[in-house]
Amino acid sequence: MPRLETARLLLRRWQMRDVDDLFEYARHPEVGPSAAWMPHPNRQYSLQMLAGVFMEEDTRWAIEHKELRKVIGAISLHDDAKRTAPNTLSLGYSLSHDFWGQGLMSEAAPVVVAYGFEQLCLDLISCYHFEGNERSRRIIEKCGFTFEGILRHCNRVGEKIHHDYCYSMTREEYFTRRSQDRQTARP
After folding, report:
1. Which of 4-41 are b and which e, b meaning 16 or more Cβ less than 10 Å from the residue's Cβ?
2. Is the pTM for the entire model greater than 0.70?
3. Could you tell me where the DSSP H helices lie in the chain?
């Protein structure tokens, strides 16, 4: 698993020593439910998630804030349970509530999308958000994903049922956008 880097962030493999940082942000009542999981009830639960899920996947990065040298979130390319086509993964992410609104996920997500298309040679990357999650919608749109539609009554988090707002980007769309961005950036 490669380390990926942005101006303010290091995207790296999870380590067992990250458990306290994970629990600190994952216990917040707004973080997990917006990313389709319940808040972590205790440190032991975070430890189990870290050992059983986060460390076993090669495309699930810890988001470390470079200046603070602290894990403040997670980002991944993982199987999309809604799509069975080969060579397709889904972008997922969560970020500590303390860092919302600072543009950090808008910094991290494009690097992971680029890795998916340029290194993994994916054909399609999907991404989803729940109704009302405007922060996530803006990140997805900034990355250049295309809105596909709404899967109604799709996910349950605790007792609440959510609609999934579905987006995707094909390999061709990614490289077309990258080429256009480069042409625009030329003096």
Report:
1. bebebbbbbebeeebbebbbbbbbbeebbbbbbeebbe
2. yes
3. 19-26, 31-34, 43-49, 104-118, 134-143, 171-185
The three-point CA angle 5-8-14 to 5° equals 55
Tens of pLDDT, residues 80-108: 999 999 999 999 999 999 999 999 999 99
Distance between CA atoms of 135 and 184, rounded to whole angstroms? 26
* Interval 20-38: pLDDT, tens: 999 999 999 899 888 888 8
Beta bridge partners of 161: 156
Take residue 2 and report the two structure tokens written for it. 């490669």
Q: Which residues pair with 48 in a beta bridge?
A: none
Amino acid at 90: S
In the block, tokens 């729940």 appear at 130
Grouped pLDDT means (10 residues each) for the chain, 187 residues: 95 96 94 86 93 82 97 96 94 96 97 97 96 93 97 84 93 92 73
Enumerate domains of the chain plus CATH numbers: 4-185 (3.40.630.30)
C-alpha angle 77-110-50 in degrees, rounded to nearest 5: 35
